């Protein structure tokens, strides 16, 4: 883990509720794809956010923060970042955290499963896999409540088009009549598409209640617990 001071370069909306934050650390940052950082609000108040950028980008860190009035955890974090940005102050971060980073030393196909802003976690791994020209099949499922939350739809379609082994599957829980893709819960779409999850390494991020359900449903669908990775496991039973 590295403790660093970082400038808040920009905060820009991705949707009504999700914001992209660019941080510029005052020294080069080292992390693995799929790790997270903690934004230090106080000595005992540290908030976890996945790093959306690739490890090769050592001079800037991208975060996606889903903040609404109902979510004080994220809203207070965003206010902290805004205040630092407006007053030309740095924020303190602890980078390179987590145990659910991408494992590259095997040949198993990969499922990246993201619910909502869990996208950030999966995006770092997807971009890293493209950068190293990974030859393993990679299925990237991104589940959102409404179509309007698919803020990186075109970017991920381009990612999938860039490599014959990559596939991007967006899943909308409450679709409009014009939506022609997968619908419902994102992990149900995975189970509809794939007969057995036994061969896969599975990386996932999303709400804690979602991750508990997905773990149990996926194991019933053949997934091997040791090949499933989620930092949320540390926070749930
Ligand atoms: C290590 C760590 C890193 C984190 N990183 C971030 C981050 O980078 N950004 C951030 O904003 N927050 C982060 N958080 C906080 C938390 O993970 C997010 O608040 C959460 O992922 C937000 O989900 P959402 O509201 O966007 O999903 P929603 O919009 O509520 O849901 C999106 C989709 O998830 C699926 N889903 C949701 N609930 C269920 C369910 N009960 N059963 C089955 N499927 C379900 C559905 O497919 C749904 O359409 C992090 C937390 C930890 C511990």
UniProtKB/TrEMBL annotation:
Into which EC class is this enzyme placed? oxidoreductase
User: Which InterPro entries does its entry note?
Assistant: FAD-bd_FR_type, FNR_nucleotide-bd, MRET, OxRdtase_FAD/NAD-bd, Riboflavin_synthase-like_b-brl
| Protein name, as recorded | NAD(P)H-flavin reductase
Q: Which CDD domains match?
A: flavin_oxioreductase (cd06189)
Q: Say if the entry is tagged with keyword rRNA processing.
A: no
Q: Please name the Gene3D superfamilies in this protein's record.
A: Nucleotide-binding domain of ferredoxin-NADP reductase (FNR) module (3.40.50.80), Translation factors (2.40.30.10)
Return the similarity comment.
Answer: Belongs to the Fre/LuxG FAD/NAD(P) flavoprotein oxidoreductase family.
FAD-binding FR-type domain sequence ranges: 1-103
GO terms assigned for molecular function: oxidoreductase activity
| UniProt-listed Pfam families | NAD_binding_1 (PF00175)
Q: Which UniProt keywords apply?
A: Luminescence, Oxidoreductase
Query: At the top level of its lineage, which domain of life is listed?
Result: Bacteria
UniProt-listed Enzyme Commission number(s): 1.5.1.-
In the record, what lineage is assigned to the organism producing the protein? Answer: Bacteria, Pseudomonadati, Pseudomonadota, Gammaproteobacteria, Alteromonadales
Extract one GO BP annotation from the record. bioluminescence
């Amino acid at each position: 883990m590295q403790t660093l001071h970082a400038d808040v370069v920009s905060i820009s909306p991705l949707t009504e509720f999700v914001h992209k934050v660019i941080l510029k650390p005052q020294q080069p940052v080292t992390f693995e794809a799929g790790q997270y950082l903690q934004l230090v609000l106080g000595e005992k108040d540290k908030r976890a956010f996945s790093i959306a950028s690739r490890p090769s980008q050592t001079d800037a860190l991208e975060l996606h923060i889903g903040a609404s009035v109902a979510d004080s955890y994220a809203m207070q974090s965003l206010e902290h970042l805004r205040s630092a940005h407006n007053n030309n102050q740095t924020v303190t971060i602890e980078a390179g955290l987590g145990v659910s980073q991408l494992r590259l030393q095997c040949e198993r196909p990969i499922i990246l499963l993201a619910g909502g802003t869990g996208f950030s976690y999966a995006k770092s791994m997807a971009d890293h896999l493209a950068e190293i020209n990974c030859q393993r099949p990679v299925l990237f499922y991104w589940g959102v409540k409404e179509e309007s939350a698919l803020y990186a739809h075109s970017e991920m379609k381009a990612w999938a088009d860039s490599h014959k082994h990559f596939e991007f599957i967006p899943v909308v829980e409450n679709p409009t009549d014009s939506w022609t893709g997968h619908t419902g819960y994102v992990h149900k779409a995975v189970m509809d598409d794939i007969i057995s999850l036994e061969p896969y390494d599975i990386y996932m991020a999303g709400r804690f209640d979602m991750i508990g359900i997905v773990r149990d449903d996926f194991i019933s669908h053949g997934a091997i617990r040791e090949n499933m990775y989620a930092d949320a496991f540390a926070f749930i039973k």
